[in-house]
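Proteins fold reproducibly. Look at a sample protein:
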Amino acid sequence: MRGRPFPFLRRLPALLSCLLLLTALPVFAVQQPAVSDGMPGYQHTAWRVGQGAPGDIWDIVQDRQGMLWLATGSGLYRFDGRRFERQAAPAGTRFPSTNMVTLGLDGGDGGLWIGYFQAGISQFTQERLRSFGRPQGVPVGVVPRFAHDRNGRLWAAVNGGLRWFDGHRWQEPPASFGLPQRRVQWVLQDRHGTFWVLADLQIWRRPPGAARFEATGIAVSQMASLVESPLGEIWLADRVRGTSPLANAHGLLPAEEREARRLPGLVASRLQFTADGALWATLSPHGGVARVTFDGQQAVRMERFDAAQGLTATSAVPVLADREGNIWVGTNLGLNRFRAHSVQTLSVGPTDPYRSLVRASDGRVYGYGEDLKLFDLRRPLLGGSAAQLQATARQAPTPVWQFDWINLARTVSGHTTLIPLPAPFTGQPLHALLFADADQAWACAGERAVLHYTDNRWRRETRLPEQACSSLARTDDGALLLGYADGTLRRLHGGTVNTFGAAEGLSVGPVTALLQHKGLLLVAGEAGLAARSGNGRFLPVRTDMAGVLEGITGMVADANGLLWLNGSRGLVRLQVATLRSALRNDQAIAPRLFDAVDGMPGIALQSGPIPTAVLAADGLLWLATNQGLAWLDTRQSHINTMAPGVRIGDVLYGSTQAPLQEGLRLPAGTTQLQIDYVALSLARPERNRYRYRLSGVDDAWQEAGASTRAYYTNLAPGHYRFEVEAANEDGIWSSTPASRSFHIAPTFLQTAWFKLLCVCVVMAALALAVRVRSRQLAALFRARLQERNGERERIARDLHDTLLQGSQGLILRLHAISQSAQTPEPVRTQLESAMLLAERNLAEGRERVNALRDAPFAGRDLASALADVHAEYAGQGTNPLRLTMEGTPPPLQAEAAEEVFLIGREAIRNALRHAQASAIEVELSYGTRCFLLHVRDDGVGIASDNAGGGHWGMQGMRERAQRLGAELQLWTRPGLGTEVALSVPARRLYHRHPSRWRWPWSRTSHD
């Protein structure tokens, strides 16, 4: 009997075909990553229309200084992180349109290229605007993109065709390029040298070294765009098929791979890759912004952020990653910034209000709540569910310590055992805990107990005072540190207890955390932080942020030399080396604060017995906050190493505000200035710090904190140079300061001419005062001279009428007696001798009276007057006189000439009467600056300075010379004669010649 085949065999070919088809499906399957709303790893900041931001933002670029430029439907804007400024065209020019859609950086002078919706192209700098339309080669249509090829040539994608710029006009590529000249949407030069063009709804490329463009055969939709990834892959955003990779360094990807990696759910307007390999996209036509993360080539997750999550609008186009890692997204209702969190929140951990952390002896960190359920917090597990974290925690290889406020708990192999405190401390609250290792624990409980759990039983520490501590820690050498609520610190090592308090410089209030790291002991309290290096005193740690070191309840040091402090303001980072230097030099430090903007969920817990900061062996820093558990990866730097540029803005003087340009001249009378400046660091602009100085005013840098304005008053005219530096949120300062020079013009009262005029006026006033005073002194001198002459004449009359007349009568009487017959001869002889002596005295007295009555000089010239003196006293033939004169005698002042004559007469008389000289020499010299009189003799000399004949003597000669303002000198040696020298300044002796010009207020002198 012939049977029929088994039915299965008949269906075998069909089954094999289905199996092959199922096997091949993954090759052609597109990627569908898990989608979630919100971006918990990023801080979003929005600037909305109505808050200063523009609307209809179509493109964003960042210039070399760090400034953001926005092409909008209402014109060109720039943004420095604080203010939006609409940019006006340079003076005398205007933009062809305000509807700007594309921006490109100029590779030459740092300007911008602007593409318009329907108005061509412009080249813009602060000083110049050049516009190009159809006459300059730009076709009609939207300008979606600019790009430079590897030769530096600038290309523009215009709907009406591709163009390149030759420096003067835009040129159309020749037909030999093989490129269609319509519907050009995008241009891109990749790092491998290939130039990509989207034209006529196709993708074209020009490989390195090729002269022609070649078609790829890949069709695209309208308004498609391209972007290059950090790995060098070219990705395409197509508004119909979604987003997919296009090519890599080896060329076009196979169609199967492009399809397998395609993201059909990511319909994007623009694409932007970040340094971590994530893909950002603005969704078209609506849907906000999306972020796609990859595991290799597989897209694993897509996070979406739309208006419901805080985006300024659901319609977004441009997306830009700036040089500091911020992501900027423009919408039709404002600008958005996304900044990656440094601190990440654990979203699947304990849900109890109080969450604790503990580090096991193997370096693993576990979290738990009041229910004591452990969560394993190792790095590879953070993406898992709460059940997964709990399941791995139950398999912990080492014992794990916990607490429930009145008991300790120890979990071994998933089994938890409660360890109550010993009597009489059972049930008393725990104030501080320290888990030294897997088998030891220290506890401060109640009001007086310090307990040590070891060998499965409690022991009370009797070496310490009966005082419960508020904080516990171990040192590198195994010593136990105990901090107390009264602000003291004790160190227990072996049998020695050391106590530190205010006498040792420790003054931080109730102690909340302790840490010893490489010889540096840190004590945190409610009032701040103190540090002790080696065996020195405790020193307060000062910062430039008030209160940032208060309420520290957790401190750790990582392997990179950084200190992490969890406190009431957030997480604080300090560099150990910087802290040591600040303590040595008594300086304030600039800490880095991680707060809500950095992802910190709340602040550190303030009321727990264990530290709130724990460092795991895998480098994750775990933090217990009042809003849950969080972590920070210490293996990443979390430092913004980009030194900020600084832009100096406007200067305000009086009621005028203008840009502070180099060489600006400010009007005369300007004494007060306000100068604006801003750091071009866009990550945390509110955390930027500044310092500035003005040459000629500031001797050193002026710390300005976060202020972006400098004020100056009482400025004098002159040249000034203003300099400003900035530091970003991580304390990285500008490499070079920004500077501007300016000049303040002087008013007439501040000019050198006015000052010279003032000097001249002062000098004229002084001259006038001197002249007036001289006249007063001359008048006083004349009055005194007249008074003296009158007194001399009165004395002369009195002497003549009394003494001389009486003496003459006496001589006559004696003469009569001597002629009497009754007078004996001897008496007569004596009387005649006495009368002879009396006559000589009478003659001398008469001479003196004549000298008092009439000035002996009497207006004669000095030479003849002195010659008459010699002739009168020397007689004929004896003591010859040699008289010489140099220069022409000028008119002399009568009073001064008389004084000179009297000094000369006294010198001649002394030589005749006392020197026994055989010859006398008198020399007169009329110089232009002074008058010289020399009287020399060859006599016996003068024995002393006080010697001299006559009434006046040498003392009288010196007094006359002093009154005259002259200098009198005497040279004499016994047996060698005597010389008297008189030097009189010309101005004291000569009559001055009248000036050729006179001050208007001066009067002609008739003296």
Q: What stands out?
A: Confidence is low (pLDDT under 50) at residues 1-10, 14-28, 946-952, 999-1007.
